[in-house]
Design goal:
Elements (H helix, E strand, L loop, with lengths): L5 E3 L4 H4 L8 E15 L20 H21 L2 H4 L5 E7 L2 H8 L9 E5 L9 E7 L3 E9 L3 E3 L2 E6 L4 E8 L2 E9 L7 H25 L5 E6 L7 H6 L2 E2 L10 E2 L2 H6 L5 E3 L2 E3 L2 E6 L12 E7 L20 E2 L2 E2 L9 E8 L1
Parallel strand pairs: 2-3, 10-11, 12-13
Antiparallel strand pairs: 1-2, 2-20, 3-5, 4-5, 6-9, 7-8, 9-10, 11-16, 13-16, 14-15, 17-20, 18-19
Helix pairs in contact: 2-4
């Protein structure tokens, strides 16, 4: 049974300047993104390079034990994102590092998520490691009307005859409680070989994202667009800061511009991923200006963004205590969740 996502506006009175005597009600929905860290099934697909995944490197018996635990952990985490306010999981969540449609079916049918009747939008991508992106959505809240996988075609800088096979970018348009929204889900190329040497790949990915965004805005300059993903770059990198021209401050965002609420979080020392005692915010959700305009709340507007990092998603001990509690290490399953923390934002509108 679907839980209500209506909450009293008391928690918003100060920030919205509303007199508590008015007792207004708001609908609140969580939008999220989560890198699920190698959510692969236990079967070898001869048409894919899935044997390179951590799960497939384990024995069949170990896989059969680890896989259901991994699925359960992912479902437990997703169920909690944003629930402190909405009392339910995200209305819409982009995911990456998943192998196929089957693992997503297993995920949404976990007891923690099954009551919310999630739909799945997924396309197989040409990624050389057989990992894809996808969108999950509560069917009672979001109604998709269009989806398309945009192929990212790039070639090696040192040999332009060799293609770099990486993830598609997924564009989904639909109605969130009857209001049109666009989501672009990303998992940009990694920093394998070093940040500098691989930078051109993420710049190329950003150019495709911008092309998708621009095509939407050419049809409707006031489109509400959220660009989410594991960008393998921080808010300050060329791909985000220059190609997408994402702004830290709302007042600097033009009509067709982008706002990045995660830049200020990064400057506070927060992070979604840690490496050698350094935190970074690779996982972000960017948005267009129509989601920021707060003349009224008769339609959905951005309220707040955050990094979901409760204690149970953190490594409990040792050298990496406090880091994201990754699922796979040293050739086995750790009992953990993911090497990334999920990110989220709240959209609100007056009831």
């Amino acid at each position: 049974m679907r839980k209500s996502n209506l909450i009293y506006a008391i928690i918003f009175f100060i920030s919205l300047g509303i007199n508590a005597q008015e007792k207004k009600e708001f609908k609140v929905n969580t939008i999220a993104f989560y890198n699920l860290e190698n959510l692969f099934d236990t079967e070898n697909d001869p048409d894919k390079n899935d044997e390179a995944s951590p799960l497939m490197e384990m024995s069949q018996g170990a896989r059969d034990i680890a896989y259901p635990k991994k699925v359960k952990n992912m479902a437990d985490a997703i169920a909690d994102i944003g629930s402190e306010v909405t009392k339910m999981p995200p209305a819409v969540i982009g995911v990456c590092e998943i192998e196929n449609f089957k693992v997503l079916e297993d995920l949404v049918n976990d007891p923690k998520l099954r009551p919310y009747n999630y739909g799945i939008i997924h396309y197989n991508s040409p990624d050389r490691r057989s990992i894809d992106v996808a969108l999950l959505y509560q069917k009672a809240v979001f109604k998709p009307t269009h989806s398309k996988a945009h192929e990212l075609v790039m070639f090696r800088k040192d040999d332009n005859s060799k293609r770099v096979y990486t993830r598609d970018q997924l564009h989904v348009k639909g109605l969130l409680d009857g209001e049109e929204m666009h989501f672009i889900i990303n998992h940009w190329p990694s920093r394998s070989g070093g940040e500098s040497k691989s930078r051109y790949l993420r710049v190329g990915a950003a150019k495709l994202t911008k092309k998708i965004k621009d095509s939407i805005q050419n049809e409707n300059p006031y489109a509400k667009i959220m660009i989410m993903g594991d960008f393998n770059d921080g808010p300050y990198n060329e791909s985000i800061k220059e190609v997408l021209n994402a702004k830290e401050n709302k007042e600097d965002v033009g009509l067709k511009g982008l706002y990045n609420p995660f830049e200020s979080l990064a400057k506070k020392g927060l992070g979604t991923i840690a490496w050698r005692d350094t935190w970074d915010v690779f996982d972000q959700i960017l948005m267009t200006r129509p989601l920021l305009e707060k003349d009224d709340y008769s339609d959905y507007k951005f309220y707040q963004a955050g990094i979901f990092n409760p204690f149970y998603l953190q490594n409990p001990q040792g050298r990496y205590k406090g880091y994201p509690f990754r699922a796979f290490a040293d050739g086995g399953f750790t009992g953990g969740y993911s090497d990334h923390f999920p990110v989220f934002l709240y959209l609100i509108k007056e009831k």
